[in-house]
Amino acid sequence: MLPYLGTTPLAGVDAGALNGLYAVLLAGGRKDAEGGGLAPRSVRYVHTIAHRLFKDAVRWGRLARNPADAADPPRGTSSGSPNMVTWSAQELARFLDGARTTDRHWAAYLLLATTGMRRGEALGLRWADLDLAACRAAIRQTVVTVNHEVRFGTPKTAKGRRTVTLDAVTVAALREHRKAQTAERLLIGAGWRDHDLVFAKVDGTPLHPERFSREFTRRLARLGLPPIRLHDPRHGWATMALAAGVHPKVVQERLGHASISITLDTYSHVSPALHGEAAETVAALVFGTAR
Question: Which among 60, 161, 178, 207 could bridge 155 via Cys, Cβ 3.0 to 4.6 Å?
């Protein structure tokens, strides 16, 4: 909101100004490597924040009414993100197999695919945040870009600050990655910049999120795989987990969604299959029919 309304006096923000903001965000609000506009659902989140902001202003006597009450945010979608494209399990395995021996970021790709972490969460992960013996990763730091410059940050919400359990394959990959990083560090010597980052440049400094996304795109193009965004393996993990019967609450907690309603709304496309599974499961319990 700040780049568009930050210089406007509080009393000068009306429904028209908010509607203009929403239109700008829909047309070109993305700040990552993909560019383009934000999804309607994302713009509705902005509206929710704006509504709360102005509600507080009314409560504190700074405004007579809440301009967000009269604004018209875009309608949400009940079919998940319109930009969501996911690979099959076989396509994901093909990508990981192809990158394993030729890409120093392979362990990062694997972590994203097996945990549903966001890009900035994975790039901000520190070795101190990992307990590989216990198969756990604590998400406490993120890497973001501000005006295309890399900055360290923290998870956006309390739910985003979480601990994720790791599978055995991912733990083994991280152990191997640490050995490779240690070798790089010895070669660099005094030039190493120690940020304790799990995934870093060869000198230890943080990876640029947008460049990391572009490298991912080039990699999958070379492998001849269907084009997806770096964010989409997160969607793929959630889709496969829900389809496999993982409880939505567990999916919400692993993804770091602020509420389970966000999870259910985003992945509502999985629901029809789950409804059929539920019907057959309960029928088998009641009638003793074979499934």
Answer: 161
Give the alpha-carbon dihedral of 231, 235, 237, 241, to 10 degrees.
170
User: Are the C-beta atoms of 119 and 209 separated by less than 8 Å?
Assistant: yes
Q: Sheet containing 130-131: which strands, arranged edge to edge?
A: 130-131, 136-139, 162-165
Query: What is the value of pTM for the model shown?
Result: 0.71
Q: Which SS3 state, helix, strand or coil, does residue 144 take?
A: strand
Q: Name the nearest CA neighbour of 57 among 11, 121, 125, 96.
A: 11
Residue pLDDT, tens place only, 168-197: 999 999 999 999 999 999 999 999 999 999
Interatomic CA distance for residues 44 and 38, integer angstroms: 10
For residue 32, the one-letter residue type is D
- Asked if 82 and 43 count as a contact pair (C-beta separation under 8 A), the reply is no
Burial class of residue 147 (count of CB atoms within 10 Å of its CB; 0-12, 13-18, 19+): exposed
Residues 6+ apart with CB under 8 A from 36: 28, 30
Is the confidence at residue 211, as pLDDT, over 70? yes
- Give burial (CB, 10 Å; 0-12/13-18/19+) of 213: middle
Q: Helices (H) and strands (E) in the chain — how many of each?
A: 12, 5
